[in-house]
User: Which sequence fits this backbone?
């Protein structure tokens, strides 16, 4: 299991509250209000229905407790845990209306984030035995970036920059608009604070050599086949962190990692990972 730092509780509370408000609207859960007696108590479990890796329990727990702070929630497989079909993730006991009202928002967060963690874990497993690490990109759902990047960490990956504000990544359009690689790097270096790292994207080995001669902390090697990536590693000689990116799949990740690059960035793990199938199953009435 991955050792994780939880997301700030204020952030989780805010996003979950907004999701519940969207679901409840002006009238609340009219289905549960009309079918479940107000004083009914139940015990349910969150259960995995397929193999995967769990992430998002804080958000799920918050959704239930925003409906009723007295719900008893016992987590059995925390974030970062690998689960199989039938595994119980958490047990919830208390007011039945509160449970079923919070169910969909809780499962939306838990299924989506567990899907990202599961996709990340598959890539991490694919490059096991190498020193290459799997990282995410900024290709995230608007408003959920911190959550999705947390899920990447739960799956064993690492995070790229969180936004345009915390690191400089000079891409092809920046280079073209600046007038060249040297102009772009030197301009970035003149403006960056001493804590800001500079990375540049290159398409060729000639561009790589030019960037390394000027000096940068990291280089993104865009859409290079493994043979060229191996040459890039040799040219680099450890001077900068090397990140391979562009169309890398589970089938090709191992061959890319074998070249010796430091990172493989994969946008798919956040923008296209399918939800992990997790259900909420009624077990019994509770006292």
Assistant:
């Amino acid at each position: 299991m991955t050792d994780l730092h939880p997301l700030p509780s204020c952030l989780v509370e805010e996003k979950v509250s907004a999701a519940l408000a969207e679901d409840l609207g002006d009238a609340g859960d009219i289905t549960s209000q009309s079918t479940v007696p107000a004083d009914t108590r139940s015990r349910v479990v969150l259960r995995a229905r397929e193999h995967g890796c769990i992430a998002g329990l804080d958000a799920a727990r918050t959704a239930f407790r925003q409906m009723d702070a007295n719900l008893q929630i016992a987590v059995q497989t925390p974030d970062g845990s690998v689960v199989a079909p039938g595994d119980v993730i958490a047990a919830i006991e208390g007011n039945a209306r509160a449970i079923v009202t919070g169910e969909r928002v809780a499962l939306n967060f838990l299924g989506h984030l567990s899907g990202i963690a599961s996709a990340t874990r598959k890539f991490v497993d694919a490059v096991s035995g190498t020193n290459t690490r799997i990282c995410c990109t900024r290709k995230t759902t608007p408003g959920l970036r911190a959550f999705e990047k947390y899920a990447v960490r739960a799956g064993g990956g690492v995070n790229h920059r969180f936004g345009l504000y915390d690191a400089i990544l000079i891409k092809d359009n920046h280079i073209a608009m600046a007038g060249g690689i040297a102009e772009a790097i030197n301009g970035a270096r003149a403006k960056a604070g001493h804590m800001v790292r500079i990375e540049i994207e290159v398409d060729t080995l000639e561009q790589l050599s030019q960037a390394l001669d000027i000096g940068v902390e990291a280089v993104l090697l865009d859409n290079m086949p493994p043979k060229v990536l191996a040459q890039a590693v040799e040219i680099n000689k450890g001077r900068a962190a090397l990140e391979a990116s562009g169309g890398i799949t589970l089938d090709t990740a191992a061959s890319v990692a074998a070249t010796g690059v430091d990172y493989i960035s994969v946008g798919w793990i956040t923008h296209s990972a399918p939800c992990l199938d997790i259900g909420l199953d009624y077990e019994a009435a509770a006292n």
Observations:
- The first strand starts at residue 41 and ends at 48.
- The radius of gyration is 23 Å.
- The chain has a mean pLDDT of 97.
